[in-house]
């Protein structure tokens, strides 16, 4: 039997398209909380069919032999606020930085870390999936800008680890004598650390210092333990 050529009485048939399977999108999730990281992974696997790899320790080196991820989802405070090396190859990988709680500090770290997009976990699973889907299609939303900042040239922009310890004890309501006992330092030294952190936070009392640290996101940053922490010296709205 021979094939019959198409005539005017027979409509031309379109060629059959080959249905080639699409490769699963590759996503890397960087988060210090294993429960949260696994939850994000299961969500993206179910909603997007993604192939998800986890990084739970900021000291972990990426596998150079592994294919690069198309999207990195990274906690804003991962790697002590320096997650840049986990985020992206600008040519091939988009980066979504997510915060547990939105704050000026988490937004600023996202921008400085090279994020393509920024989100807050409290916005819900649908928002997270939609953002990752948009990044896979190169439709990522821009990272929200942090508040305007006025940084005095002589004002340090980091709390030291010891100042962070003092701040956490002041948040608990301890007096300076108790702070000194907890840290095995003199009361005068404890007060000196407090004066330094007050200056860096733009505060004039322990209550103001705790308020500013909470507002800026510094206390959220320190939930993982006392350590050096970047501080924004932004323009403050009068209270």
Description:
There is one protein chain. This protein has 239 residues and is an alpha/beta fold. It has two domains: 26-136, Response regulator (Rossmann fold), CATH 3.40.50.2300; 158-230, Winged helix-like DNA-binding domain superfamily/Winged helix DNA-binding domain (Arc Repressor Mutant, subunit A, Orthogonal Bundle), CATH 1.10.10.10. It has helices spanning 34-48, 84-87, 104-112, 125-136, 161-171, 176-183, 187-201, 206-216, 218-221, and strands at residues 26-30, 51-55, 71-75, 94-99, 117-120, 158-159, 229-230. Strand 3, helix 2 and strand 4 form a beta-alpha-beta unit. Helix 5 (161-171) packs across helix 6 (176-183), helix 6 (176-183) crosses helix 7 (187-201) and helix 7 (187-201) crosses helix 8 (206-216). The longest helix has 15 residues, at 34-48. The protein is elongated, with a radius of gyration of 25 Å. The termini are far apart. Residues 1-8, 145-156 and 235-239 have low confidence and may be disordered.
Summarize the structure.
This protein is an alpha/beta fold and 239 residues long. The chain has nine helices and seven strands.
Topology:
Layout: E1 26-30, H1 34-48, E2 51-55, E3 71-75, H2 84-87, E4 94-99, H3 104-112, E5 117-120, H4 125-136, E6 158-159, H5 161-171, H6 176-183, H7 187-201, H8 206-216, H9 218-221, E7 229-230
Parallel strand pairs: 1-2, 1-3, 3-4, 4-5
Antiparallel strand pairs: 6-7
Helix pairs in contact: 1-4, 5-6, 5-7, 6-7, 7-8
CATH class categorisation of the largest domain: Alpha Beta
The gyration radius over C-alpha positions equals 25 Å
Principal-axis shape equals elongated
CATH-defined architecture of the largest domain? 3-Layer(aba) Sandwich
CATH superfamily of the largest domain: Response regulator
Helical run tally:
9
Domain unit count = 2
Number of DSSP strands?
A: 7
Distance between the termini: 89 Å
């Amino acid at each position: 039997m021979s094939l019959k050529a198409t005539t005017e009485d027979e409509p031309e048939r379109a060629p059959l398209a080959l249905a080639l399977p699409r490769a699963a999108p590759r996503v890397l999730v960087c988060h210090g909380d294993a429960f949260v990281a696994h939850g994000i992974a299961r969500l993206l696997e179910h909603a997007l069919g993604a192939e998800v790899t986890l990084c739970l320790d900021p000291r972990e080196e990426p596998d150079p032999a592994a294919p690069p991820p198309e999207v990195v989802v990274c906690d804003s405070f991962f790697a002590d606020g320096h997650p840049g090396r986990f985020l992206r190859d600008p040519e091939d990988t988009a980066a979504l930085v997510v915060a547990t709680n939105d704050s000026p500090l988490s937004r600023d770290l996202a921008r400085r870390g090279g994020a393509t997009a920024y989100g807050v976990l409290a916005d819900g699973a649908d928002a997270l999936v939609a953002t990752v889907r948009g990044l896979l299609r190169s439709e990522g939303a821009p990272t929200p800008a942090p508040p305007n900042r006025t940084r005095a040239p002589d004002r340090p922009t980091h709390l030291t680890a010891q100042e962070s310890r003092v701040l956490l004890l002041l948040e608990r309501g301890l007096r300076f004598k108790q702070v000194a006992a907890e840290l095995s330092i003199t009361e005068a030294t404890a007060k000196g650390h407090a004066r330094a952190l007050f200056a860096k936070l733009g505060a004039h009392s322990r209550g103001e210092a705790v308020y500013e640290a909470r507002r800026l996101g510094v206390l959220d940053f320190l939930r993982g333990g006392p350590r050096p922490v970047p501080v924004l010296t932004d323009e403050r709205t009068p209270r």
